[in-house]
Amino acid sequence: MDAILTTAKELHSELLDFVLDAEDDLAVSLEAFSAEQLANFSDSQYQGAVQNEMVLNMFLTEGKVGDKQPIDLFLESHPNLSSQQQNLVDNFQRSFAGLFVVKQIFDDGFALRNWLTEKEYIVKISEQEQQQLKRAKAAEILLARIAPVNEQYWMFSSPVTVMGRLGKPKLAVAIGNFKKNYQNSLYGDAPELLEEAWLSVEKYHQGFIDFFNSDEITLPGYQLEQKLSELQEQVTQSKLAAAGIDSSKSLKEIVQQADISDEEMSEIVEEMGVEGKAVSQVLDSKKSVKMVMPKVELPPHLKKAEQVTVLSFPRWGQIFLTNYTQFKNLLIGDNTDEQIEPNKLVREYLESPDIKACVWQRLSSQYPEKLEKLLQQVLNRPKFDIKQDLVSLLTEFHKSLNPVLPEIASVPLHLHNLFQEALSEVKGKSNKKGKTKSKGGFGG
What's the pLDDT score for residue 118? Predict the structure, then answer.
């Protein structure tokens, strides 16, 4: 192991000890961060020490003490570090988690590709890691965090979980689990992908408003699915128009107009397997970042629902609720349905992970006094103040105040293709068994 890698490993170990040994605000922040993150990991198959170490490493870059990160505090408390050592510690700010496929194995490390972003890395390892990873093989998937040592290579900055060779369905599920557990690392090494994904959410929200003339609609499930399909068609048409593409033209005509080479056209046809309008999802004004909008498909229980309310938000995406009308009726004093139990409904809205903080914020802005009174009664908290206490209540019930990238967000082309191929495999196997099971998005 070369001297720089040795120094980087030692400094990283010192940084972890610094955080674990803290007894001030840093310790309080770590405890709160760990509790929230471990709650997200509750159904993960990777429990125990590995999980705790991953959370600790996440805290180094995602944790905050006031307006400072743990790494900032470490540097402040170690003023005698050399400039080289300071640079190595600064590099830890760029660490991120990923699902890496092993492309090549060297005596002292690996060539890896991040499956989520297709970016490639040379990762050097210590002698201890060589022993731990000696069974790792090419094409296997590794779950780990990596941090840059210098401009040439990186190092593992967390335990490494060898997940083995994964078929497409299992890989799609692994990516879905990764999105849930490591939300801030989804495109940790590709801010351009993250920016495009968030922008796509905003554009879809605006398309929703333009189509329905509102950010809130209520329809029977079967009718809602039809309307959402029409909405997606309209969004696609708008995208074509924005790209200056005539949707009435054939794929060949579209490609020629976009000045795409025959080789690129063949690649698009092979990758997408589509004609006409769908090609607009990759021919987006010749952008280098090729993103694809996922197909909106309601789960069976929503398709069959008598009534579904959709709330659309520019950052949270769309929230689907089958009892939002009943909840609003509780607030406006029009609860004519005797089967609706206020206590049960309020508890469901507080405890269900599907009811995001944005729903409560919306209700509190529309019906502040009535929502306050309802919560006072249901929670038996007569002094509950909607303006002062709502945030702490949402935190109490583990509702994040910050949106995570919703399912409607566009995904990179290679991930879209993976999900479609995985879905085809699953459907093929299910059809052989006389069953049909559907799964879409990030394994969700």
Answer: 96
